[in-house]
Automatic annotation (TrEMBL):
It comes from Eeniella nana. It is found in: Membrane. Its main location: membrane. Keywords: GPI-anchor biosynthesis, Membrane, Transmembrane, Transmembrane helix. The lineage of its organism: Eukaryota, Fungi, Dikarya, Ascomycota, Saccharomycotina. Belongs to the PIGC family. Pathway: Glycolipid biosynthesis; glycosylphosphatidylinositol-anchor biosynthesis. This is Uncharacterized protein. The chain crosses the membrane at residues 76-95, 101-123, 274-293, 305-322, 329-350. InterPro entries: Plno_GlcNAc_GPI2 (IPR009450). GO terms for cellular component: glycosylphosphatidylinositol-N-acetylglucosaminyltransferase (GPI-GnT) complex. It is a multi-pass membrane protein. GO terms for biological process: GPI anchor biosynthetic process.
Amino acid sequence: MAFLSHSYRRNSISLPELQATKGSRFFRKQTTWKKLLWVKQDYDDDYTDSSFLSQLKRNSTVVNYSYWKLFRDFSLVNLHLSVIMCVILVFYGMYMLRWDPVRPIILSSALTLLGFIVYVVTLKIRRNKELIRLQHWKILQLTSSRESGSAAAHLDLEKYITEPASPGLISAFKSSMLILLHLLTLSPVLKSLTNSSASDSIWAISAWLCLLNVLFNDYVIDFPQKQRFPELGAVATTANAAPVLPKIGSHSNMSKNIALSNAIVLASRLNSNLSAFCFILFSIELCGLFPIFNNFTRRCQFWVFHWLQVGTIVFGVSYAMYRIFGTGWCICWLSLHLLIVVVGPLYFIALQKYKDELQGPWDPAHPVVKSIQ
Protein backbone atom coordinates (compact mmCIF):
# COMPACT_ATOMS: atom_id res chain seq x y z
CA MET A 1 0.00 0.00 0.00
CA ALA A 2 2.82 2.37 0.76
CA PHE A 3 4.34 1.61 -2.62
CA LEU A 4 1.03 2.31 -4.42
CA SER A 5 0.54 5.54 -2.51
CA HIS A 6 4.03 6.67 -3.39
CA SER A 7 3.48 5.76 -7.07
CA TYR A 8 0.18 7.66 -7.17
CA ARG A 9 1.73 10.76 -5.67
CA ARG A 10 4.59 10.59 -8.15
CA ASN A 11 2.31 10.31 -11.24
CA SER A 12 -0.37 12.74 -10.13
CA ILE A 13 -0.28 16.36 -11.39
CA SER A 14 -1.47 19.24 -9.34
CA LEU A 15 -3.53 22.13 -10.74
CA PRO A 16 -0.64 24.63 -10.86
CA GLU A 17 1.49 22.08 -12.66
CA LEU A 18 -1.37 21.40 -15.09
CA GLN A 19 -1.67 25.09 -15.97
CA ALA A 20 2.08 25.32 -16.42
CA THR A 21 2.12 22.48 -18.94
CA LYS A 22 -0.52 23.96 -21.27
CA GLY A 23 2.25 25.06 -23.61
CA SER A 24 3.68 21.58 -23.80
CA ARG A 25 3.65 19.37 -26.89
CA PHE A 26 0.59 17.44 -25.71
CA PHE A 27 -1.61 20.51 -25.39
CA ARG A 28 -0.20 22.23 -28.44
CA LYS A 29 -1.58 19.48 -30.67
CA GLN A 30 -5.11 20.30 -29.49
CA THR A 31 -5.11 23.70 -31.25
CA THR A 32 -6.29 24.05 -34.85
CA TRP A 33 -3.50 23.67 -37.39
CA LYS A 34 -3.43 26.13 -40.27
CA LYS A 35 -1.72 25.63 -43.59
CA LEU A 36 0.20 28.88 -43.26
CA LEU A 37 3.95 28.70 -43.14
CA TRP A 38 4.46 32.34 -42.32
CA VAL A 39 2.23 32.20 -39.21
CA LYS A 40 3.91 31.15 -35.98
CA GLN A 41 2.09 28.07 -34.69
CA ASP A 42 2.56 25.57 -31.89
CA TYR A 43 3.52 22.85 -34.37
CA ASP A 44 6.75 21.72 -35.88
CA ASP A 45 7.68 23.04 -39.32
CA ASP A 46 7.51 19.56 -40.85
CA TYR A 47 4.10 18.77 -39.37
CA THR A 48 1.37 17.90 -41.91
CA ASP A 49 -2.28 17.44 -41.13
CA SER A 50 -4.57 14.89 -42.77
CA SER A 51 -6.20 17.73 -44.73
CA PHE A 52 -2.91 18.98 -46.14
CA LEU A 53 -3.54 17.69 -49.68
CA SER A 54 -7.34 17.60 -49.55
CA GLN A 55 -7.76 20.60 -51.87
CA LEU A 56 -5.04 19.58 -54.30
CA LYS A 57 -6.24 19.40 -57.93
CA ARG A 58 -4.48 17.73 -60.80
CA ASN A 59 -4.91 18.87 -64.42
CA SER A 60 -8.04 20.87 -63.63
CA THR A 61 -7.41 23.36 -66.46
CA VAL A 62 -6.11 20.88 -69.02
CA VAL A 63 -8.39 20.62 -72.05
CA ASN A 64 -8.92 17.20 -73.58
CA TYR A 65 -8.78 17.69 -77.33
CA SER A 66 -10.61 15.51 -79.80
CA TYR A 67 -9.00 14.24 -82.97
CA TRP A 68 -11.38 15.99 -85.36
CA LYS A 69 -10.97 19.30 -83.55
CA LEU A 70 -7.20 19.02 -83.98
CA PHE A 71 -7.66 17.86 -87.57
CA ARG A 72 -9.57 21.05 -88.31
CA ASP A 73 -6.93 23.17 -86.58
CA PHE A 74 -3.97 21.51 -88.31
CA SER A 75 -5.68 21.90 -91.69
CA LEU A 76 -5.03 25.65 -91.40
CA VAL A 77 -1.31 24.90 -91.66
CA ASN A 78 -1.97 22.95 -94.86
CA LEU A 79 -4.01 25.82 -96.23
CA HIS A 80 -1.25 28.33 -95.55
CA LEU A 81 1.40 26.06 -97.06
CA SER A 82 -0.74 25.66 -100.18
CA VAL A 83 -1.13 29.43 -100.50
CA ILE A 84 2.65 29.90 -100.34
CA MET A 85 3.21 27.08 -102.82
CA CYS A 86 0.66 28.59 -105.19
CA VAL A 87 2.67 31.83 -105.28
CA ILE A 88 5.86 29.87 -105.94
CA LEU A 89 4.23 27.89 -108.76
CA VAL A 90 2.97 31.05 -110.45
CA PHE A 91 6.44 32.56 -110.23
CA TYR A 92 7.99 29.38 -111.66
CA GLY A 93 5.51 29.45 -114.52
CA MET A 94 6.28 33.09 -115.33
CA TYR A 95 10.04 32.71 -114.90
CA MET A 96 10.74 29.32 -116.46
CA LEU A 97 7.69 28.35 -118.51
CA ARG A 98 6.97 31.83 -119.93
CA TRP A 99 3.36 31.95 -118.78
CA ASP A 100 1.18 34.87 -119.70
CA PRO A 101 1.24 37.07 -116.55
CA VAL A 102 -2.21 38.50 -117.26
CA ARG A 103 -4.16 35.23 -116.89
CA PRO A 104 -3.35 34.52 -113.21
CA ILE A 105 -4.10 38.10 -112.23
CA ILE A 106 -7.44 38.07 -114.07
CA LEU A 107 -8.48 34.89 -112.25
CA SER A 108 -7.33 36.10 -108.83
CA SER A 109 -8.91 39.55 -109.31
CA ALA A 110 -12.24 38.02 -110.32
CA LEU A 111 -12.23 35.75 -107.25
CA THR A 112 -11.20 38.68 -105.04
CA LEU A 113 -14.08 40.78 -106.35
CA LEU A 114 -16.51 37.91 -105.77
CA GLY A 115 -15.20 37.42 -102.24
CA PHE A 116 -15.52 41.13 -101.53
CA ILE A 117 -19.16 41.09 -102.62
CA VAL A 118 -19.86 38.08 -100.37
CA TYR A 119 -18.06 39.83 -97.50
CA VAL A 120 -20.06 43.06 -97.83
CA VAL A 121 -23.44 41.35 -98.26
CA THR A 122 -22.84 39.00 -95.33
CA LEU A 123 -21.78 41.85 -93.05
CA LYS A 124 -24.89 43.87 -93.93
CA ILE A 125 -27.21 40.91 -93.33
CA ARG A 126 -25.67 40.08 -89.96
CA ARG A 127 -25.57 43.70 -88.87
CA ASN A 128 -29.26 44.13 -89.73
CA LYS A 129 -30.14 40.96 -87.80
CA GLU A 130 -28.25 42.24 -84.80
CA LEU A 131 -30.03 45.60 -85.01
CA ILE A 132 -33.39 43.81 -85.06
CA ARG A 133 -32.44 41.85 -81.93
CA LEU A 134 -31.29 45.02 -80.19
CA GLN A 135 -34.48 46.86 -81.08
CA HIS A 136 -36.52 43.95 -79.74
CA TRP A 137 -34.49 44.08 -76.54
CA LYS A 138 -35.04 47.85 -76.32
CA ILE A 139 -38.80 47.38 -76.67
CA LEU A 140 -38.74 44.83 -73.86
CA GLN A 141 -36.78 47.23 -71.68
CA LEU A 142 -39.24 50.07 -72.34
CA THR A 143 -42.22 47.81 -71.64
CA SER A 144 -40.78 46.60 -68.35
CA SER A 145 -39.92 50.16 -67.28
CA ARG A 146 -43.48 51.35 -67.99
CA GLU A 147 -44.97 48.47 -66.03
CA SER A 148 -42.73 49.19 -63.07
CA GLY A 149 -43.37 52.94 -63.29
CA SER A 150 -39.69 53.86 -63.58
CA ALA A 151 -38.30 56.25 -66.14
CA ALA A 152 -36.82 54.60 -69.21
CA ALA A 153 -33.23 55.50 -69.91
CA HIS A 154 -32.15 56.48 -73.40
CA LEU A 155 -30.31 53.60 -75.06
CA ASP A 156 -27.83 54.12 -77.85
CA LEU A 157 -27.95 50.93 -79.87
CA GLU A 158 -24.81 51.77 -81.82
CA LYS A 159 -22.55 51.09 -78.86
CA TYR A 160 -24.13 47.65 -78.37
CA ILE A 161 -23.48 46.47 -81.94
CA THR A 162 -20.67 43.95 -82.17
CA GLU A 163 -20.72 43.50 -85.95
CA PRO A 164 -18.41 45.87 -87.82
CA ALA A 165 -19.84 48.11 -90.48
CA SER A 166 -19.39 46.98 -94.05
CA PRO A 167 -16.81 48.94 -96.06
CA GLY A 168 -18.09 51.47 -98.53
CA LEU A 169 -17.81 50.63 -102.21
CA ILE A 170 -16.43 54.03 -103.18
CA SER A 171 -13.75 54.03 -100.49
CA ALA A 172 -12.76 50.45 -101.34
CA PHE A 173 -12.53 51.35 -105.03
CA LYS A 174 -10.35 54.38 -104.26
CA SER A 175 -8.02 52.31 -102.08
CA SER A 176 -7.72 49.62 -104.74
CA MET A 177 -6.93 52.12 -107.46
CA LEU A 178 -4.34 53.79 -105.25
CA ILE A 179 -2.58 50.46 -104.66
CA LEU A 180 -2.70 49.61 -108.37
CA LEU A 181 -1.21 52.96 -109.36
CA HIS A 182 1.55 52.64 -106.79
CA LEU A 183 2.46 49.15 -108.00
CA LEU A 184 2.30 50.22 -111.62
CA THR A 185 4.61 53.15 -110.90
CA LEU A 186 7.09 51.16 -108.82
CA SER A 187 7.16 48.01 -110.97
CA PRO A 188 10.20 49.17 -113.06
CA VAL A 189 12.09 49.91 -109.86
CA LEU A 190 11.09 46.62 -108.25
CA LYS A 191 12.07 44.67 -111.35
CA SER A 192 15.63 46.01 -111.27
CA LEU A 193 15.94 45.86 -107.50
CA THR A 194 18.31 42.88 -107.34
CA ASN A 195 20.20 43.14 -110.63
CA SER A 196 23.52 43.18 -108.80
CA SER A 197 22.71 40.02 -106.81
CA ALA A 198 23.22 36.45 -107.92
CA SER A 199 20.23 34.22 -108.52
CA ASP A 200 21.35 31.74 -105.85
CA SER A 201 21.21 34.50 -103.24
CA ILE A 202 17.69 35.42 -104.34
CA TRP A 203 16.50 31.80 -104.07
CA ALA A 204 18.05 31.49 -100.61
CA ILE A 205 16.43 34.72 -99.42
CA SER A 206 13.08 33.60 -100.81
CA ALA A 207 13.36 30.21 -99.08
CA TRP A 208 14.07 31.86 -95.72
CA LEU A 209 11.18 34.29 -96.21
CA CYS A 210 8.80 31.41 -96.97
CA LEU A 211 9.95 29.59 -93.83
CA LEU A 212 9.46 32.72 -91.72
CA ASN A 213 6.06 33.20 -93.30
CA VAL A 214 4.98 29.75 -92.11
CA LEU A 215 6.39 30.26 -88.62
CA PHE A 216 5.04 33.76 -87.98
CA ASN A 217 1.62 33.34 -89.53
CA ASP A 218 -1.28 34.16 -87.23
CA TYR A 219 -3.23 30.89 -87.25
CA VAL A 220 -6.54 32.07 -85.80
CA ILE A 221 -8.00 28.81 -84.52
CA ASP A 222 -10.98 29.76 -82.36
CA PHE A 223 -13.31 32.72 -82.49
CA PRO A 224 -15.06 33.10 -79.10
CA GLN A 225 -18.80 33.49 -79.49
CA LYS A 226 -19.39 35.90 -76.65
CA GLN A 227 -20.96 39.30 -76.30
CA ARG A 228 -19.57 42.56 -75.09
CA PHE A 229 -22.60 43.19 -72.86
CA PRO A 230 -23.96 40.32 -70.74
CA GLU A 231 -27.39 41.92 -70.38
CA LEU A 232 -28.06 41.07 -74.02
CA GLY A 233 -27.75 37.35 -73.38
CA ALA A 234 -31.48 36.79 -73.09
CA VAL A 235 -32.04 38.34 -76.49
CA ALA A 236 -29.18 36.54 -78.20
CA THR A 237 -30.30 33.12 -76.99
CA THR A 238 -33.85 33.40 -78.27
CA ALA A 239 -35.13 30.97 -80.82
CA ASN A 240 -34.03 31.37 -84.42
CA ALA A 241 -31.37 33.89 -83.38
CA ALA A 242 -28.03 33.88 -85.15
CA PRO A 243 -24.96 33.89 -82.89
CA VAL A 244 -23.80 37.34 -81.88
CA LEU A 245 -20.23 37.76 -83.02
CA PRO A 246 -17.54 39.55 -81.04
CA LYS A 247 -15.61 42.53 -82.23
CA ILE A 248 -12.85 41.63 -84.64
CA GLY A 249 -9.61 41.76 -82.73
CA SER A 250 -6.32 42.94 -84.09
CA HIS A 251 -4.18 40.17 -85.53
CA SER A 252 -0.54 40.08 -86.45
CA ASN A 253 0.31 41.16 -89.99
CA MET A 254 3.90 39.98 -89.89
CA SER A 255 3.30 37.02 -92.21
CA LYS A 256 1.59 39.30 -94.75
CA ASN A 257 4.56 41.67 -94.72
CA ILE A 258 6.93 38.73 -95.14
CA ALA A 259 4.84 37.44 -98.06
CA LEU A 260 4.99 40.88 -99.70
CA SER A 261 8.76 40.98 -99.23
CA ASN A 262 9.05 37.54 -100.80
CA ALA A 263 6.93 38.66 -103.76
CA ILE A 264 9.12 41.74 -104.29
CA VAL A 265 12.30 39.65 -104.12
CA LEU A 266 10.99 37.11 -106.64
CA ALA A 267 9.47 39.75 -108.92
CA SER A 268 12.90 41.31 -109.37
CA ARG A 269 13.91 38.21 -111.37
CA LEU A 270 11.08 38.37 -113.90
CA ASN A 271 11.58 39.43 -117.49
CA SER A 272 9.27 42.43 -117.85
CA ASN A 273 7.67 45.20 -115.85
CA LEU A 274 4.23 43.76 -116.58
CA SER A 275 5.25 40.39 -115.14
CA ALA A 276 6.58 42.03 -111.97
CA PHE A 277 3.41 44.11 -111.58
CA CYS A 278 1.06 41.15 -112.11
CA PHE A 279 3.04 38.84 -109.83
CA ILE A 280 3.16 41.29 -106.91
CA LEU A 281 -0.54 42.05 -107.28
CA PHE A 282 -1.31 38.32 -107.40
CA SER A 283 0.70 37.78 -104.20
CA ILE A 284 -1.12 40.62 -102.43
CA GLU A 285 -4.52 39.19 -103.33
CA LEU A 286 -3.62 35.62 -102.41
CA CYS A 287 -1.41 36.11 -99.32
CA GLY A 288 -2.97 39.32 -98.02
CA LEU A 289 -6.68 39.32 -98.79
CA PHE A 290 -7.52 35.62 -98.92
CA PRO A 291 -6.49 34.86 -95.27
CA ILE A 292 -8.73 37.72 -94.11
CA PHE A 293 -11.65 36.33 -96.09
CA ASN A 294 -11.04 32.79 -94.81
CA ASN A 295 -10.95 34.01 -91.20
CA PHE A 296 -14.21 35.83 -91.84
CA THR A 297 -15.91 32.68 -93.13
CA ARG A 298 -14.75 30.70 -90.09
CA ARG A 299 -15.81 33.48 -87.74
CA CYS A 300 -19.28 33.37 -89.28
CA GLN A 301 -19.19 29.55 -88.98
CA PHE A 302 -19.57 28.92 -92.71
CA TRP A 303 -17.81 25.61 -92.34
CA VAL A 304 -18.94 24.16 -95.68
CA PHE A 305 -17.62 27.21 -97.49
CA HIS A 306 -14.40 27.04 -95.48
CA TRP A 307 -13.76 23.40 -96.38
CA LEU A 308 -14.58 24.22 -99.99
CA GLN A 309 -11.81 26.83 -99.97
CA VAL A 310 -9.37 24.44 -98.31
CA GLY A 311 -10.12 21.60 -100.73
CA THR A 312 -9.97 23.82 -103.81
CA ILE A 313 -6.61 25.36 -102.96
CA VAL A 314 -4.94 22.20 -101.63
CA PHE A 315 -5.99 19.92 -104.48
CA GLY A 316 -5.55 22.67 -107.07
CA VAL A 317 -1.96 23.27 -105.97
CA SER A 318 -1.32 19.51 -105.85
CA TYR A 319 -2.61 19.08 -109.40
CA ALA A 320 -0.53 22.02 -110.63
CA MET A 321 2.55 20.52 -108.98
CA TYR A 322 1.81 17.21 -110.69
CA ARG A 323 1.54 18.89 -114.09
CA ILE A 324 4.69 20.98 -113.64
CA PHE A 325 7.10 18.83 -111.62
CA GLY A 326 5.77 15.31 -112.11
CA THR A 327 4.49 12.49 -109.95
CA GLY A 328 7.41 12.29 -107.51
CA TRP A 329 7.16 15.85 -106.24
CA CYS A 330 3.37 15.59 -106.08
CA ILE A 331 3.60 12.47 -103.90
CA CYS A 332 6.07 14.21 -101.58
CA TRP A 333 3.77 17.22 -101.35
CA LEU A 334 0.70 15.11 -100.54
CA SER A 335 2.73 13.11 -98.00
CA LEU A 336 3.61 16.36 -96.23
CA HIS A 337 -0.08 17.24 -96.05
CA LEU A 338 -0.98 13.82 -94.65
CA LEU A 339 1.85 14.07 -92.13
CA ILE A 340 0.48 17.37 -90.85
CA VAL A 341 -3.24 16.58 -90.67
CA VAL A 342 -3.01 12.89 -89.69
CA VAL A 343 0.18 12.34 -87.71
CA GLY A 344 0.21 15.81 -86.16
CA PRO A 345 -3.10 15.48 -84.24
CA LEU A 346 -2.25 11.94 -83.14
CA TYR A 347 1.12 13.06 -81.79
CA PHE A 348 -0.51 16.01 -80.03
CA ILE A 349 -3.07 13.71 -78.38
CA ALA A 350 -0.29 11.32 -77.33
CA LEU A 351 1.42 14.20 -75.53
CA GLN A 352 -1.65 14.77 -73.35
CA LYS A 353 -0.67 12.00 -70.95
CA TYR A 354 2.51 13.86 -70.02
CA LYS A 355 0.61 16.86 -68.72
CA ASP A 356 0.89 17.01 -64.94
CA GLU A 357 -0.37 20.31 -63.61
CA LEU A 358 -0.99 20.65 -59.89
CA GLN A 359 -3.20 23.35 -58.46
CA GLY A 360 -4.11 24.11 -54.89
CA PRO A 361 -4.97 26.93 -52.51
CA TRP A 362 -1.38 27.95 -52.02
CA ASP A 363 -1.11 30.82 -49.62
CA PRO A 364 1.39 33.48 -50.71
CA ALA A 365 3.81 34.79 -48.17
CA HIS A 366 3.28 38.24 -46.71
CA PRO A 367 6.68 39.68 -45.86
CA VAL A 368 6.90 42.10 -42.98
CA VAL A 369 9.14 45.03 -43.79
CA LYS A 370 10.76 46.51 -40.72
CA SER A 371 12.19 49.96 -40.83
CA ILE A 372 15.80 50.26 -39.73
CA GLN A 373 16.31 53.22 -37.45
